[in-house]
Structures are given as C-alpha cells and as structure tokens.
Amino acid sequence: xxxxxxxxxxxxxxxxxxxxxxxxxxxxxxxxxxxxxxxxxxxxxxxxxxxxxxxxxxxxxxxxxxxxxxxxxxxxxxxxxxxxxxxxxxxxxxxxxxxxxxxxxxxxxxxxxxxxxxxxxxxxxxxxxxxxxxxxxxxxxxxxxxxxxxxxxxxxxxxxxxxxxxxxxxxxxxxxxxxxxxxxxxxxxxxxxxxxxxxxxxxxxxxxxxxxxxxxxxxxxxxxxxxxxxxxxxxxxxxxxxxxxxxxxxxxxxxxxxxxxxxxxxxxxxxxxxxxxxxxxxxxxxxxxxxxxxxxxxxxxxxxxxxxxxxxxxxxxxxxxxxxxxxxxxxxxxxxxxxxxxxxxxxxxxxxxxxxxxxxxxxxxxxxxxxxxxxxxxxxxxxxxxxxxxxxxxxxxxxxxxxxxxxxxxxxxxxxxxxxxxxxxxxxxxxxxxxxxxxxxxxxxxxxxxxxxxxxxxxxxxxxxxxxxxxxxxxxxxxxxxxxxxxxxxxxxxxxxxxxxxxxxxxxxxxxxxxxxxxxxxxxxxxxxxxxxxxxxxxxxxxxxxxxxxxxxxxxxxxxxxxxxxxxxxxxxxxxxxxxxxxxxxxxxxxxxxxxxxxxxxxxxxxxxxx
Length: 611
Known about the structure:
Elements: H1 6-34, H2 45-51, H3 57-64, E1 71-76, H4 91-101, E2 105-111, H5 117-120, H6 129-144, E3 151-155, H7 161-171, E4 177-180, H8 191-202, H9 208-218, H10 230-240, H11 256-271, H12 282-285, H13 288-301, H14 307-317, H15 324-331, H16 348-353, H17 356-366, E5 387-392, E6 395-400, E7 424-429, E8 432-437, E9 447-455, H18 458-466, E10 474-478, H19 483-486, H20 495-503, E11 508-512, E12 525-530, E13 547-551, E14 556-559, H21 563-568, H22 587-592
Parallel strand pairs: 1-2, 1-3, 3-4, 9-10, 10-11, 11-12
Antiparallel strand pairs: 5-6, 7-8, 8-12, 9-13, 13-14
C-alpha cells in the first residue's frame, strides 16, 4: 500500500488529540465489561430460566455451558412497509440455524422502529424522522440490556436506522457486532426520468396519475431504493468501516449471493466473541482511523449530507470528537470517484456492476487516502474490503476487486477523477456554518448571489412557486427547520420546484437550518445552518430582499449586511406547530438536541474543541 497521505494523517492526529480523554475513558469501560466475561454467567437461575425459556432443548443445553457456546443477539428493523426492510423478515431463522450449525445459539433480542423518509417527505411525520435515530438507539439498548449475549447482529438498512443501531452498539462496545444488510431493489426506470417527471408535475404539465405511474416504476419491489441517498450511503459506511462481511452492501435481496452473505455474517460473529481467541469488540474496531476512513468514503462517493450529522454522533458514541472542519480538510484531498444518482445517471446496481465499493476502496488504499491498518470484523486490514465475494459452487470465496471500474462514466480513477476534491464543502460566514453538497452541482452554478425570499416552512415556498412568484434569481431561505425547532425535517419536497426554476435559467439557491434528502444536490443548497434559528442563529434575522452569497468555490455563506445591521434586527418568530401525529411526544428530544455540527443528538453530548 502507498504511504498514507499527509492530510489524512494530520486530520486523524487532530481527532485523536482532541478526543484523547473521552476516548481513553470509553476504552477503559469497554475493557472493564470485556473482562467480566459472559454476563449471563452472573445471572441468577431465575434470570437465566426467563432468558431462555422459549428456546429449543438443544439451545438450552448449549446456553447452560456458559464458557463454551456464544449466544448471539439479533436486533432487527424489519417491517414490511419499507421495501428495504421487507427482506429482513426471513433473516432471523436463517441466522439461528447457521449459528447453531457453528456451535452457538442466537436469539431475537428485539425489534426497533423503522420509518421511511420517502413516505413522510413533505408531511408532518417527517418531523419525527431525525429523532427516530435516537429512539432506535434507545430501543437497541433495551434489546441488549438483558446481558444474555456475547455478540450481536444488526439487521437494518435505511436512513436513521443504521446510525441508531450503530450508536447503541458502540455503547455496548465490549460486544462484537456485525451489520447485516438486505441489498438494493432491482433497477426500475432511470433516476433522471423520475426526476424530470417530478419537475413536470411541479410545473403543472402532467397530472397526478402520470406522476404516480412513474413513481411506481421507480419504487417497484423489495430492497433499498436504488439512488445513492442516505440508505445506500449507510451501506458504504458499514463496508468501509469494516462492520460488514466484505462485499455485502449491494447484492440484491432474495438471491443466492444475498443468502450466502447473511450466512457468512452469522458464522463470523460466532468466531469473534470473547469466548474465542479472535475477540473483536466493536468499541475497539471503531476508532479514529475508521471514522476518518468513513468520511473519506463519503466524500469520494458523493454520499449523503445526512452523514455530516450522523458520523459526528456515531463518533461521539465511541468517545471520538469530529467536527465539520475535519470533513472540509479531508475533502480537500479526496477525489470524487463515483457518479451515482443524484451525482450521475447510474444507480447503485450499475455502480456495483461497474466494480462497486471494492474498486473504490482499492483505489483509495493504493493512493494512501485510507488507513489500511485498521481492525475490522474480518481481520486487521482494510485490504479485506478491496475484495469481492463470488460463489464457487456451494462455497463463498473472495477475490481481488478490479483496480479500475468497468465504466468510466460511473467509476473514475484517482489520477483522473470526476472532481479533484470531495463531494461536500463546508461554508462559513456571517450567517453561520453550513454544509454544501457540491458533487451534483454544475460548475457554473457553484456560486449564487441573489436577493433572499424568506419562509418559515416548505409549504409556503411551494405556494409561492405555484403562484408564479419566482421570476428572478433568488436565494430561498427556509428558517426554523433545525433540530431544536421541529426536529430538522428533510425538505426534499423543494427539489422539484427549485430544480425546475434552475432549468428555466434562473440562478437559484436554498439556505436553511433544516436538512435535504440524501438524494438531493441538483441545485446549490446551504443546509444544516448552525447555529439554528431557534437557538439565536443569525439566519432568523434575514429579511426579504437581503442579498445572500452562497459560494461553493470559496466556502462562503454570507448576507450583505454589516455585523451591526444584522445584530440590530429582531429575529423572526418561530412557528408553533408541533402537535399532531405524535409530534408533541418528541418535545423532550427537541429540547435536548444539540446543534447539527454536534450530531443533532438528544442522547450523545459532543463538546467541540477547535484547534
């Protein structure tokens, strides 16, 4: 492997230095729990009898032998409304049998909720979305709290689900944990055709029946949505962090390969518990190097902006402090190597066929842009993840991934990337700090300077669009969309109208303290603005007509006002509409949530120390 890039090394050291005391305490706790041995061995007879009352006689015999046979927890986000999670229905029984065949036992420890952002986009239920991550974390902790387990398999795929499962797993850091995905659905109509149909509907040029027919052709079967949004970015992260069986991310559901990969994960977890000699607790697998690798992977593939929030919360759960400057610094040396919708025309199936994650990881390793010497669930080198699985008769084996992609319109090379720097830029100025996804923006649209139109919700923006109020260049400002205000919903419903305005030749940008979908990126958007409006952020003082500059080339987000003028203004009033659909139940999360740059979590407190 090549010598590690100096910037990768520098950022890793910054994170390590900044995280020192918290990480040391975290590892001390991991070791303390590890040395206590199988926790069920200290449970009373009544406790144990409760814990395995319903298992088979064969499993009971094995569970009585505390030091000989591992017991594996299965935590699943299965429900059959989410296409991505519907295939998980049959996984537990397959896992139990595979584990039993390998001299261990497994129990379904608990289910966690799984909501679909695709269903709730633009609806009040979207205000529960981000905090569903915290609910999933809590539910996973409950599942693992029975102290019956020596390892865990996490079954989940979509947006907040994998981060929530991982945060909880890290709080049980003494347990080895492997993530088990279900795979993407087969390809439907092209993503560009789907997006254009949405724009035509927003413009009133087609009716709802035609729009619905298009959407059904896109979302048409079991598996993950095929665009490169947060769900598929999750799978990339689990792969590049060494928490999957290598190559597990993008094989389709209900195929022999998917079944073989699930069985391989079930077998592997039995080999890495504290009862054997290959113990790999997740708290040790996830360290500063693997977090840096995750960020580099996100940048190199043009992944979801949601992970500029999630990765910070995930790192904090392991005693590691990451900030947006780390993303920005790493982006400066990370080439953009993938074109997957919305950053290109290909979907994840096309990407996988062209060489997939193994090819990307191999290139980044050979360029010295990833830490190779990391612990993973498979071994002590990320090189294992530069390989791809194949079937050799009934056996599953791995071979080296291709060094270059089979289609240079989908996978580029480090020497000739799609862009010299990563797909995410950090903006800063007198309106605060924000995230800007550059990977899908036309080069001539990276900078927009125009008068502001200020709104307090996306419905008001849509109404203005329908009324024909946008006839000139504009920066659309949507305030009071942060975690402390209304749970930081995605504002993906704005993509079709703002995309349509850009297609008409207007220079358009969005500025908000809310989120955009992981599938967004066609027009400039400064999102996750921190501090958020409800916490006194200056964005709440912007008025219609103020000139705002959104500059993706120079990393600037500013309103053309003096500091005195901006400070003298009274902030706009926050909307008071957090009742209905259970939103009132989440008030405790809104009150406890940190800022977006701190992970927007109500559970994990991150202290940012700038250096």
